[in-house]
Specification:
Serine Threonine Protein Phosphatase 5, Tetratricopeptide repeat, alpha/beta, Rossmann fold, single chain, 33 helices, seven-stranded parallel beta sheet
Length: about 750
């Protein structure tokens, strides 16, 4: 064969997209002319196009050994290193290419891209400016210039730069792809999708554009289509780590956590220091009940990128879920410093497990809104006056199915005065086909499933329906969508129930609470005005019947002995409270501590801590997961519920009282640390609220030692259903009065 002729033919095949024949001929040339650098170089380019970047790097590296100063090879070597996330090495390769050929515009433009990847945006912009000055007609440089401007938040300039590129090369798919991402950044999602689709129409094999199309579809709540788009990207480029990571996020949104984990594992195998994939791997492991493994993954994410915006929050949550008190003690100060510095995106709910401090919580929520929220949005309601016969209230929640929030609020929805109120449900969560879902649908005048609609679309619906009061029941909790209210769809916007703290937003007007959970001197730490209900913020479903209790043996309890219990999630148990509980067990002979069954790691840690305190771990009895009704029934076997701090019993407190089980608490300073006290006060049991931890311990010991004192409380619980706590009709009237007062202030 004639190597030069074969090489020319291979290049022709390559240029027309016939990679198979190009590859075949490049291999033949390499065998026939092993000292020819062009063949391994161009075969490396083919391998890069196929997503086989490890092989590409090896082939181009071999070519560079034959021809070390070839600028095109150096530039392509940089391209592969860039794709592999090895940005510093890529930069060095581009610098070598430019040292050989200073006017190499393509290498200069790529150098600008990798400087962007390194976060050196000002240098990237300068390099891009230099490339454009060298060749103002270089469409790719205008496109890349737009990307850098977009990263700098200069979106209008970025769009203008893309338009200049398109004027020169209207069929250039990269420009349409980059333009799509900038449009996504400014929330012009429909236009962004149209641009991404133009890119793949022009180049059906453009894996990056398919990936970005998936990202936009995901933002549009079209999750199934997003996954299909990622699938297409991965068919084209099986080693595309970013697409695997993005598909993992979409699968997690559909609660397909095992598949999400598999994608994260593949992404990390391809790029071991891929911080986002390591973080998302931690999330999947957490959801799969493997917090110890999740903790390791979050640590790896932080090692790969110490400035990762989310990994610290994930790590802090995993430490709580494992009951690792050494780790949580270390992290408490780290979290506080991070929140005060406004660095990471710390989930406000996670902070509640660490700090009893409304001021710190306000800082955390404001940071979260600034970092994770949509930013200022044009308001949909601009002061129009409605003249409705009834007050129109919309409740927004991801929990309108078999969920604790639904179980608490369903009777309240049923009891709303339909002569004065028209109520709408906007549901973001699944239709689980449960009896609770059916009951909720019946409870509302309108029930709307908004899972496939964007936040703006949901807000537009609320405005179209002329909702007077929009009530967010989720706040900063899983699945909730507080950003709907950022579009100001209603004259009054409030939050209630699902999240015990300030939203940190400037678009939530009111927080429904009471004076126990938010004393007057704490109002300064809440963005919202406080709608303080007269009895309690707490509401329950009083239609729930309690079956007869099982035997102690059936519940796994010893035949005799005092039963202390805490049916809060295990992550709420902190070292100071556990020490008190162990002292109580040590003092009260034959007593046991009855806890909910958590994950295996936290169970083992609690047993080990008991052993350290000199308590036989067998005296910790773990109640297996069961149905809500069976759990209520077995609570009748316990003698005293011991509350936690800084995150109290909330639903578990009202459930315990409903089952006739006394509960001892001590209120902290923050909202989540004072809910149990509100519940006890509304139940007419203020004597169960201790002023501090020593008094809490003494009160619990008194009830364990003095059966008559405990019986006196139990006697009061016989009529607890007649107290304001369980008068849902009264509560609903109080809430409706609060709604009326809110509207009067518009």
């Amino acid at each position: 064969m004639n190597p030069q002729s074969a090489l020319s033919q291979a290049i022709a095949f390559h240029q027309t997209g016939n990679l198979a024949d190009a590859e075949r001929l490049y291999v033949e040339v390499m065998r026939a002319a092993p000292r020819e650098a062009a063949a391994p170089h161009l075969l490396g380019v083919v391998r890069a196009q196929q997503g086989r970047n490890g092989e590409a790097l090896e082939l181009i590296g071999a070519a560079l050994k034959l021809k070390p100063d070839a600028p095109e090879m150096l530039s392509n070597h940089g391209n592969v290193l860039k794709t592999l996330g090895r940005f510093a090495e890529a930069l060095a390769s581009y610098d070598r290419a430019l040292a050989v050929k200073p006017d190499y515009v393509a290498a200069l433009a790529k150098r600008a891209q990798v400087l962007r990847d390194l976060g050196r945006l000002d240098e990237a912009l300068a390099a891009s400016d230099a490339a454009l000055k060298m060749n103002p007609g270089f469409a790719e440089a205008h496109s890349n210039h737009g990307v850098i401007l977009s990263d700098l938040g200069r979106h209008d300039e970025a769009l203008a730069s893309y338009d200049r590129a398109l004027a020169m090369a209207p069929q250039f798919p990269d420009v349409w792809n980059n333009r799509a991402l900038t449009l996504k950044a400014v929330k012009r999602l429909a236009e962004a999708l149209a641009n991404a689709e133009r890119a793949v129409a022009l180049h059906a094999g453009f894996a990056e554009a398919w990936n970005n199309r998936g990202i936009i579809l995901f933002d549009l709540k079209r999750t199934g289509e997003a996954i299909a788009s990622y699938d297409r990207a991965l068919v084209l480029q099986p080693g595309y780590a970013e697409a695997l990571n993005n598909r993992a996020v979409a699968l997690a949104a559909l609660k397909r956590f095992a598949e999400s984990l598999a994608d994260c594992d593949r992404a990390v195998l391809l790029r071991p220091a891929f911080a986002d994939a390591l973080y998302n791997r931690g999330n999947a492991l957490s959801e799969l009940g493997r917090p110890e493994d999740a903790l390791v993954s979050y640590e790896q994410a932080l090692a790969a990128d110490p400035a990762h915006p989310n990994a610290l929050s994930g790590l802090a949550n995993a430490a709580l879920m494992t009951g690792d008190w050494v780790r949580t003690a270390e992290l408490a100060d780290v979290l506080k410093a991070d929140v005060l510095a406004g660095k990471s995106v710390i989930q406000p709910f996670v902070l509640m497990g660490y700090h009893d401090d409304n001021d710190l919580q306000l800082h955390c929520s404001r940071n979260y809104v600034r970092q994770a929220g949509p930013g200022p949005q044009p308001p949909l309601w601009t002061g129009q006056k409605y003249a409705h016969d009834k007050i129109r209230v919309a409740y927004l929640s991801a929990d309108f199915h078999q969920h604790v929030t639904a179980a608490l609020t369903v009777e309240m929805f049923e009891r709303h005065d339909r002569e004065r109120f028209e109520i709408t449900a906007v549901s973001f969560g699944p239709d689980d086909g449960s009896d609770m879902r059916a009951r909720l649908v019946r409870a509302f005048d309108r029930f709307h499933d908004a899972r496939t609609q964007t936040d703006r679309e949901v807000a537009q619906l609320l405005r179209q329906w002329e909702i007077d009061i929009a009530v967010d029941l989720g706040g900063h909790t899983s699945g909730a969508r507080p950003w709907v209210l950022a579009h100001r769809p209603a004259p009054v916007q409030a939050k209630y129930m699902g999240y015990p703290g300030t939203s940190g937003t400037d678009f939530t007007d009111w927080l429904v609470a009471d004076r126990m959970v938010v004393p007057t001197d704490q109002e300064q730490f809440f963005n919202e005005k406080i709608a303080a209900l007269p009895d309690t913020l707490w509401v329950t479903d009083t239609m729930v019947e309690i079956p007869a209790p099982p035997s102690r043996a059936e519940a796994g309890l010893p035949d005799t002995g005092f039963v202390f219990c805490c049916f809060n999630h295990n992550w709420k148990i902190t070292a100071p409270l556990f020490d008190i509980w162990m002292r109580l067990l040590d003092t009260v002979d034959g007593s046991v501590l009855w806890l909910l069954e958590g994950n295996a790691v936290i169970r083992s840690n609690l047993q080990r801590e008991a052993q350290t305190c000199g308590i036989d771990p067998a005296r910790l009895v773990f109640a297996a997961r069961t149905t809500p009704q069976k759990h209520l029934a077995r609570q009748q076997l316990a003698d005293l519920f011991l509350d936690t701090l800084p995150y109290n019993a909330h639903t578990t407190a009202s459930d315990a009282l409903w089952a006739g089980l006394p509960l001892v608490t001590t209120p902290g300073h923050s909202f989540p640390a004072r809910v149990a006290a509100s519940i006890l006060q509304a139940a007419g049991l203020p004597e169960l609220i201790a002023p501090d931890l020593p008094a809490y311990e003494a009160l619990a010991l008194k009830f364990a030692r003095e059966p008559e004192a405990l019986q006196a409380v139990r006697d009061k619980l016989v009529v607890v259903r007649e107290t304001p706590l369980f008068d849902t009709a009264r509560f609903t009237c109080n809430l409706e009065a609060a709604y009326g007062a809110m509207l009067e202030q518009v």
